[in-house]
Amino acid sequence: MAQSSATPHVKALPAEAYTSGWWGQVWHLVVWNLFLQSRRLQSSILVGIFLGGYLICQIFLIISHVLLSGSVSRLQDPAQVLAFPASLQFSYGYLSLLAPLLLCILAGTFVGSEYGYGMHRQLLTRGLTRNQVLTAQLIALALIALGLVAITIILALVVGFLLGSLFGFAPAVLPLRGWLGVLLSWLTQSLRYFLYMLIAVFAATVGRSILAGVGFSLGYLFFEFLSTTLLYGLLGGLSARVATIIVDFTGSLPGIVSNELNGYANTLITGTNSVHTLPLSIALLVTLGYVLFFSAGDVSYISPK
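Structure (tokenized):
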């Protein structure tokens, strides 16, 4: 009784959700999943952490500007980060620190709780198929990732065009190519974080629990961090062959490969050429391959044996 009352019942779905065709039913379930997330205390806490941290960063930059005023050159002034497009790059950096953690927690809890509370079974007894349930979950999570990155871009634009000007740093007017880069960066950033969420969904589906989804995905994030920091730091003391193996291994990890797409999008924004470890086509294909791999894995584990 305690578990069943801790989350809304599936019967709140409108009746037409079961009579509007396969994709119609999926869309109604997507809306229902997003509604559930908006009502959960966890979502409010995660959003509060993200926005609160962003606000603290901006306040810190302003305080640094005031304290260092007159003692540093204009190029060294911390407030220059408040001007667009530097504000966008700063926001993306902040996003890369928190988004994987917060979204993995959200995704692992979202999918794992449906098994814990028996909601997955309730959905199946109401005429929905396992593939419909999974598709709706993945679409809802993709929309959440897109929404979070969109909010980050909006915040960067507001800060870059309003707050930056207050401190004497005029925002740059990007050419059409630059705005195309902003649009593409929205998609590539969202795809990268959605991939992290897929890892959490895969683990929660296999383990049928919140702990499996959150624990495994956060463990992977820690492993990826160590692989790209600790192992890279050891390269100087290793043989060329071993170093090459380590570089190739870390470069093939999901988060690293998908981040290559962000590099190509940022090139359009900044207008400068940067070094890319993978061609665009290879990075895109490998990233989509990871998405398909984890999605197919989810399907295989929820399908009847």
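The mean pLDDT is 81. Residues 277 and 293 are 23 Å apart (CA to CA).
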